[in-house]
Please model this.
Amino acid sequence: MDTETAARLQEPPQPWFVLRAVAVIGIALSLFQLYAAGLQPLGLFFQRPIHLGFILVLCFLIYPVFGRDKPRGPLGWAIDGALIAISILVGAWLPVNIDIIANQIFPRTVDIWVGVLTVLVVLEGARRAVGLGMTVIGALFIVYAFAGNRGELPFLSDWMPGIMNHRGYSLDRLASQMTLGAEGIYGIPLGVAATFVFIFVLFGAFLEVTGAGKFFIDLAYAATGRQRGGPAKAAVIASAGMGSISGSAIANVVTTGAFTIPLMKKLGYRPAQAGGIEAAASTGGQIMPPLMGAGAFLMSEFTRVPYVDIVLVSIFPAVLYFGAVYLLVHIAAVKQNMTGLTSEELPRVRQVLADGWHFLLPLVALVALLVAGYSPMRVGFYAIVSVIAAAGARALWNFTANGPTAGKFVALCRSGIALTLEALELGARNAVAVSMACAVAGIIVGVVGLTGLGLKFSAMMIAFSGGNIVLALILVLIASLILGMGLPVTAAYIVLIILVGPALTQEFGIPLLIAHLVVFWYSQDSNVTPPVALAGFAGAAIAGSKPMETSVQAWKYAKGLYLIPLFMVFNQEIILGGPLPLVLWAGAIAILALVAFAAALEGFLWRPMALWGRALLIPGVIAVFWPDLRIEIAGTLLILLILGLNWWQARKEGIPSAPMGTSAPN
Model:
């Protein structure tokens, strides 16, 4: 989703017939998905292969073989034409032959070769839509499956460390694992992409084309623009709102950042600082309920926890994250003595709500249906219907109020049809990258299941960490950053949870849901952590700043991404619940720890903070995370003492307190 959105923004012109073919196939795919979601659910061996076939055809049409900035030429068309034909075969093979395949003991030779072709086109499609890193990782896992005494590449078994060695598998066995069951390409990752993820990506596309993105940005500006550093705070709030639409960090940066970054620079934020703030805020879109990118749906499938429960337990951590970014932005604004925008420069809340209140109805309907117990697929379908109904009703109201005529009615109908088709095509385009990533993730899942690699990786992790849970979590963080260099966030989460999940839950005793949340949060760090900070790079492009400097700023403002998962592990009540006093205590000290960490990081809260005060805050924050109530209380008292002293000194010196909800005088 991220890479597709970003690439589409710089997409060079293609021949008209290619654009027309992409539009037709994209619309057909979206209609197929709507049919399966709302009218007639399909079995997994119909839904997933057909979805993959559509996605592969779109992929090879949108991404030419020699690169998007080069014409295909006769050779390129010959290659891509053959790949498109194979993609159609891949999409149709299982649905057409399902009765034969389901009733045979051993796969036919033709099934094996179709399986081989499926693996090859999936790897090539991932290279084009996601990047070479994804393809290389998928290919390495296939080679690993062959590398054994009884495999296709027995000589490689000598190169494997003892714990990594296995028997090896033949081409027939691996092809069957990949394409003739639900443990390979057509496994859980692609299943989630072909159902829940696609329908909510389509929901986001409908919101986007009807103007919901502008509504959320204007609402954020109207609410915060007059405060100190108002545009930066608006970026935080708008990114939270846009996260409810796209769940994509890069998409958030390029949409909200186009408005917020220039205004931040105008107020006095350095270009790298403005780009970093937007990148950090936009990264929160992937952890912000109700959509959370593809993560919540995958988590629900892996853990068997209802989707609505995952959304509910994710609200408080997401609020903590955005609160931490908001506080850091406020401190930076006060330190630099910034003011807010004037009333004339800002939209009015009442006017924004009057113009776009109907965009809130689909989100209300989505949450209400989830709470009512509807399946995510059906909820997504009805949410899309509600978007169409709300936008259509608003258009009819305006049409009636402005003097209806036959000509205006015809124009209204044409506009409505055009926007609907645009949304259907956009939803399909935005789903290409995430579906290709999930298809390759299926290859990885299949190999891990076949070879037992997950348990071996867990054993190595335990050995490296020496049984220390903090070291284990640091290893997970490092692994997520390395995977993020070549994989999108969703794929990094899938690969990492498959490899380290068993160790976190079985050896370190972390509850299953918390283990998944921790890995999912850490998988976001490739958006903001140098040297691979995709959202940071996007922010730098808009801000006109150096990518690495902007990425460092994004990493600084996104510190909640690293601290909040630790709090989930050591204060599990904020996720799993418990006695009310304990839950309230855990929530309160989590907020206090983030405030203290922000103050220590910036050296400022109500006034500049002495070096000794900053130094004492760090052990106080560590103590709050300690799984011992007495140490938690001691850390809390230490933090309160230092922050209270900072407030008292500011008051004694006559410095305005400038709470975050006001615009303090210069």
In short: The chain is about 75% helix and 0% strand. Residues 1-11, 659-666 have pLDDT under 50 and may be disordered. The CA atoms of residues 36 and 42 lie 6 Å apart.
